[in-house]
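Exercise 3.2. Students should predict the tertiary structure of the chain below and write it as structure tokens, then compare their answer with the key that follows.

Predict this chain's 3D structure.
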Amino acid sequence: MRCLDLILSNKKWGSVRKIRFKSQIASLIKFASVHDGSHLMDSDIKQIIEENRAQRETIRMQITQTGWRRALEQYGDQYSKTYSPLVQDTIAFAKGTSIFSILNGQIKCSEESKIFSKRLSEKLEELDKILLPLVLDSKYKAYVCFLANLQRLGGILSIPQRYRKRTVASGMREFLNSEGFATDIASFFTIRDLLYDFGLVNWRIMPTDSIEEIYLAGQLVDKGTKPEMSYLDKVHLDQCDLFYNKRITSTTFIDTLEKHYLSLSGNDFGVIVDLLELRDLVCQELRLSDTQFNRKLLEVYKDKRIPLDIELSQGRISPRRSSGLLIKAVNVIEIDKAVFATYIRLRRRNQQYAN
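Answer key:
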């Protein structure tokens, strides 16, 4: 595929800034629009970082009913050593993605950001189409190179358990470089997390041997050509077209959901199982993002024609070491105000379902 060769012809990817979530980018765009022409204050950027982290942690605590309270404890601490070092990283990201520039100490909001800020209230799917080119066509080439290299590897990267510590001494960087990922360890996982938030990649940490499998949930293709499978969304990038959100029938989704539910329930219906664990299994088989799984599950949950009764409920999630819950537990279905689905029970119906 020509576009992959073109993207990966850049042998030095460089590093990326520590921006891991779409919400951070949206906050920067809103900030640039509101403060256009104002003097840039580090304290304003620090507040954006704190508010974003505190909001995510509040949601995570509501979902898991347990707590990682550090972000909340440090919120508003002017002497915080956790967030202050991220200020310059965040400013660099905003400049590198053309959200705003700095002239004589003043913020200059880009024309694109002014347009984008008016559209931030749109549906998340449409917001992705705005933000993705901003990131993937930015000066930080490592983002699109990550996608291209993962696709060149067949869409899957398996990281052995011995590299779980992510330290220099572990040999993790050498492993990544040998697999074609020409960036540092911190940047690799920052990219993974942001692309996960966009629904372009997903991952599962195997419970038996702690192998981490990172897989592609979209496809890059040459401009004007079609992908190998059908997708619901696409964006045009400088060097290629990006397709994401795989088109999947309700029948396929339900069959896969039921199969893995039974594997967790001891082959019995009517048993409550961990929804996040079930989601990992279904997404791994179908190569879906967690976001698309949530959307599809909510769709069939509301469809009374399907051959399954689906019951969603919230309960405390059992801690699982190296499970990715710090990132993945925030990305679940809200079934009521501040009530999030973490458990599921299926019961079989007798009628047939025609998709």
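Discussion points: Residues 42-64 form the longest helix (23 residues). The chain has three domains: 2-15+140-245, 22-117, 250-348.
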